[in-house]
Amino acid sequence: MENSNNQPKKVVYSGIQPTGIITIGNYIGAIDNWLKLQNDYNSLFGIADLHALTVRQNPAEFRARAMSFFAQYLAVGIDPQKAIIYFQSHVKEHTELSWILNCYTYVGEMTRMTQFKDKSQKNADNINMGLLDYPVLMAADILLYQTDLVPVGVDQKQHLEIARDIANRFNNAYSPTFVVPEPYIAKQGAKVFSLQDPTAKMSKSDPDPNASVAIIEDPDSIMRKFKRAVTDCETVVEIRDDKPGIVNLLTIMSAMTGESMESLAAEYHDTGYARFKQAVGESVVEKLRPIREEYNRLMQDKAYLMSVAKEGAEKASYLARKTVAKVKRKIGLVELK
After folding, report:
1. Does domain 11-189+305-331 have CATH number 3.40.50.620?
2. In this predicted structure, which of 54-63, 118-127, 182-191 has the lowest mean pLDDT?
3. Which of 76, 203, 297, 306 is the most buried (most CB within 10 A)?
4. What is the residue extent of each domain of the chain?
5. What is the Cα–Cα distance from 310 to 198, expressed in whole angstroms?
6. Residue 188 class from Cβ within 10 Å (0-12 exposed, 13-18 middle, 19+ buried)?
7. Could you list the active site residues?
8. First to last CA, the chain
9. CB burial readout 70-93, b (16+ within 10 A) else e
10. Rounded CA gap, 279 and 300, in Å?
11. pTM (2 decimals)?
């Protein structure tokens, strides 16, 4: 595919573990970027179900969660006609290339990984080889598709560096084979904080169920959470550093309505917090309504979801096979004619 300047579009790869829900924090902070990526780049969105196996999973729950996550990505606007969206486990080249890349990765590099150290401490009873080898599978995910750019957060920068190191090491040994990926630093959307602790980022893993809101949550639940949102002991709606709860609610409402925080603060300045929190909740319910309806429709049509997953896997496999074939030739494996 080419862009309007007749230059080949760059490839962007994003792998996402099927954790279950997308929060409004994810929606406001990142999804706009995802939707732009599929228009501006050759984009691949991999549901990284193999990576999730480093933690013990209940099979039925894991399968249901992965399907729900896949449907949520489609519901927010990832278009399978513009981007490739697929399950990592449906493309066997991920694990095939991972083994080969293991042979070009040093044990010391893996044991020094910050995330391995952190997760080992948190999962002392399950320090498995997958946890140690996670970055090599991630490198295979990226390098399979000759990826130019990888959207990364702070916690993934070290993993991308390892992918770059492995690519350079292989290229230097056998001649250029892999594109050496660069980090994609997207314009950061508004940061959304917890509804119960407006000094902490909203997180789907927060133990307090009232702290975050999912994009597929039912309207009654959304309204309850906003009515319980932590504010302060005053009654005026203003943008001030000492009013983090109010600023967080204004941030959310601004993202949902398209109105500026300043105009919203002026409109609700003297209405009282109860009325203001109700208005914020209503704006979220209305913005998410089409996403929730599309999600519910998709979840009733498993045949369609699986057809999209199959088509995505076929497109991804076509690209992945070309890379693996090139790698096998370079390292001297016997080819079947």
Report:
1. yes
2. 118-127
3. 76
4. 11-189+305-331, 219-296
5. 41
6. exposed
7. 119, 201, 204
8. 30
9. bbbbbbbebebebbbbbbbbbbeb
10. 31
11. 0.87
